[in-house]
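User: Hi! I'm working on a homework problem where we have to compare a predicted structure to a textbook description. Could you give me the structure for the chain below?
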Amino acid sequence: MNSIEKSRYVQLQITKTLLELLKEKNIEDIDIRYLCSKAGVGRASFYRNYSSKEDVILQYSNKLIQEWGTSFENDPNSSPFNVFGSLFKHYKEHSSFYSTLVRQNMSYIILDTIKKTVGLLPELSNKEAYEKAFFAYGLYGWICEWIQRGMQESPEEINQMLSHNQPNQ
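Assistant: Happy to help. Predicted structure tokens:
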């Protein structure tokens, strides 16, 4: 196994194990030594790949949203009119992960991922930053509230609620 394959293996084992442990324990109650032991990897391997347990979760969240973005861009049926439905479908498909973040009081990772995805960067003009922040924080609020309420609406219903073509009620 070359170093790239070994690194991917270590990352997969740590991520998978941490996500399993988070179903039963709070993140602060999970010791890195214990995590590595359960994952079957050494602590040095952990620190070669991550700076903290939160870093494991953040990297996984970024990976998931990048996969969604690639899938959306490559889908010939994608359009600005179904972006929200597609995004909420992504959150529904990975509901175990995102529900865990909300339950663990780690929803800030969802926000960080959204801000990164929309390009909310310090070098933007104030006007651009405020516009992107309005969008990012609004979307974050919708997502977290939807997750906390048990994802009762379908992604298509959410898309309809968020679209400009919302029917009169």
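For your comparison, note the following. The CA atoms of residues 96 and 163 lie 26 Å apart. DSSP finds nine helices and no strands in the chain. Good luck with the assignment!
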